Amino acid sequence: PQIEVSFDVDANGILAVSASDKATGREQKITITEEKGRLSDDEIKKMVQEAEMYAEQDARKKAAVEARNSLETYAYSLKASSKDWTISDDSRAILDEALEEVFEYIDDTSEEARAREEPDFNAKRAQLEEIAGPIVQEAYAQTQGAQDAEATPGSGDAYDGADAPPSYDDPPPAYDDVGADAPGSYDA
Questions:
Q1: C-alpha–C-alpha distance, residues 17 and 5, integer Å
Q2: How large is the angle between the packed helices 41-82 and 89-107, nearest 10 degrees?
Q3: From CA 6, how far away is CA 185, in angstroms rounded?
């Protein structure tokens, strides 16, 4: 016997199965609906109401998580980059202590810590930025000083300025002086 079976699922998830015997032309159909495990209209309405009711709380929690992540990212970035800085021992100790305090603040799992909101994390970040700001400036000044010392020729060197980069006060080169590399010049 040759039996042709067809399956049809509609938009509501209802399955219609039909089977027909090609030799006899006999056909059987069955419709399968799965009501078990589906949400009723009342349950769906209740879930929507709860979502609307907790939307503000969810937004506050999301803002707190984003602020916490921002604080954590800033602290770890500061820790990683400060390893290469040339700063005083006092500044290093102050920065390390401030970072350690922030890491303890972030890693705290107490009930009080779980209740922290966005302003709490933003205040902690501002506190860290206030401490780190002058230290970052010190590190930058040390780096600039070291670069300036490397760029300045030592005493006794015959420095004629030939390798110096052009100054904004220097006039642009005339194309006659530049040669074939000048814009608009072509080798024929």
A1: 7
A2: 160
A3: 76
CA angle 126, 129, 132 (to 5 degrees): 155
For residue 90, give Cα distances in angstroms to 83, 103, 133, 135, 138.
15, 20, 15, 10, 12
Going across the sheet that includes 3-9, the strands are: 3-9, 15-21, 27-32
| 23-51: burial string, b at 16+ Cβ within 10 Å, e else | eeeeeeeeeeeeeeeeeeeeeeeeeeeee
Measured CA to CA, the distance from residue 116 to residue 60 in angstroms comes to 10
Q: Do the strands 3-9 and 15-21 form a parallel or antiparallel pair, or are they unpaired?
A: antiparallel
Cα separation, 51 vs 132, whole angstroms: 41
pTM of the model: 0.55
Q: Which residues pair with 17 in a beta bridge?
A: 7, 30
5: helix, strand or coil: strand
Nearest to 128 by CA among 108, 153, 103, 109: 103
| Cβ atoms of 31 and 12 closer than 8 Å | no
Residues 76-134 pLDDT 10s = 999 998 888 888 889 999 999 999 999 999 999 888 888 899 999 999 999 999 999 99
d(Cα 5, Cα 8) in Å, to the nearest integer?
10
